[in-house]
# Entry
Amino acid sequence: MLQVIGDPILHSKSPIIQSTMLDHLGLDIPYTPQWVKKGGVEAYLTWAKDHGVTGFNATMPHKEDLVPLMDELGTEAIQYGAVNTVCLRDGAWVGHNTDGDGCLDSLIYAGMWPARQVVLLGAGGAARAVALRLATGGAERIWVCNRTLSKAQQLCQLDPTGVLTPAGFEPKTLVDVCTQAQLVINCTNLGMDDCPHQFEDFSFLDALPRDAGVMDLIYHPARTQLLQQAQQRGLKVSNGLPMLVYQAIFSLEYFLGRKLPRQELAQVVFTKLGLI
# Structure
């Protein structure tokens, strides 16, 4: 049995994504959501072994909490300091992170990659995985823009490539960096349903070249104000749903222990979700 854990969890699209892929592959493996309250992952690991769980995905707020509880960690999980995919191998829990690879493949799918200069909004856990993966994926410079500059600086210090550059979040700063960028990625919760805060100024979008892309990792709502504003300016746009699909494909490869037809599975899921 496979699961996804989180708090909350009922909103998660992982069960429909993973079940669609498993059905397409002809595999009769259940994939179910499991509510695990914050701080409860250690107890869940014991429960999961006793109840036949052979792998699970993790979403907020458990990704960082899982790191010290794993028996083994994959390279990306170590680098990003977070786990979103866990497999049971010979009685040992092995933690991986597929967020970075999922983001890169979703950018390729959206026609937004390669991009030499990237503006990344936010410096939290999602931004860390995206920034560090794109830094090794061909970007020449990535500005990590955050309201608290010290957090952007801390993230950039994790980058051995020297591609990441910390920056502020003031309107003038965003305009300055966007004049040099081909891609903007929002890794904050600004624009998310029920988020009390929104972008105060979208003038930075006017500084982007006309062929630039704007990705928002949010997919609730499907079109945030950021994406609406970008679309009105004729920019390429994508929400976070393709990233969710691609990171799920990489997760399933870990669960099954083999390579899968990634593009074929992506098309099947996109069709199921009404994206194509």
Remarks:
- The chain has a mean pLDDT of 96.
- The radius of gyration is 18 Å.
- The first strand starts at residue 2 and ends at 6.
- The chain is about 35% helix and 20% strand.
